[in-house]
């Protein structure tokens, strides 16, 4: 290393002079730290809650789609059966010694009853179950994002303390040694942590808004 302290009183030490390699090494260490954060007990627990809430919401949405398709098919079938029931009733009544035949009408009544049940189930899903599941999912998303943010901040703090410990001899020699950790792995982890905390706030805010709408009947 060659430099003139008179002309260059401020120095920046880097692991390599290859800028591309420097970026790749930094990203590799950040990725490893992020994976480590995902293995933390509180993050694992929060991620499990988030997945469970997402699966519950997906099941309700799937049920709503299934019932909607079923309702559509029953409506089409009922339209055909309605004409068939009338034709059968007229034909059986018009026959000699005719006795009204209500078999098709009974099938129609059963089908219409099933259709009404499907409609009520869809209403319950759309008006209550799905909104409640959405709110729960957003709450769990917020909790999981906050947990990830805290875990990354802990890892960043531990890395910073380790680096400062390694610099102790240099500090003892120079008395004062400014260190900018924001440009290294710790700084990158704090940026990730801030992003997760923002996501947590946004998810919680959206959940609050949906809950207010649900309570107000909007």
Helix/strand-derived category reads mainly alpha
Give the overall shape, derived from the CA principal axes: rod-shaped
Number of helix segments?
Answer: 5
Residue share in helix: over 70%
Span of the ends, CA to CA: 69 Å
Order of helices and strands: HHHHH
> How many structural domains can be distinguished in the coordinates?
1
Number of strands: 0
Main pleated sheet: none
In the predicted model, the low-confidence regions spanning at least 5 consecutive residues are none
Kindly describe this structure.
There is one protein chain. With 218 residues, this protein is mainly alpha-helical. It has one domain (19-216). It contains 5 helices and no strands. The protein has helices spanning 19-38, 41-94, 103-166, 168-174, 185-216. Helix 1 (19-38) packs across helix 3 (103-166), helix 1 packs across helix 5 and helix 3 packs antiparallel against helix 5. The termini are far apart. The mean pLDDT is 87.
Q: Nutshell version of this structure?
A:
This protein has five helices and no strands. It is mainly alpha-helical.
Keywords, please?
218 residues
Detail the topology: elements first, then pairings.
Elements: H1 19-38, H2 41-94, H3 103-166, H4 168-174, H5 185-216
Helix pairs in contact: 1-3, 1-5, 2-3, 3-5
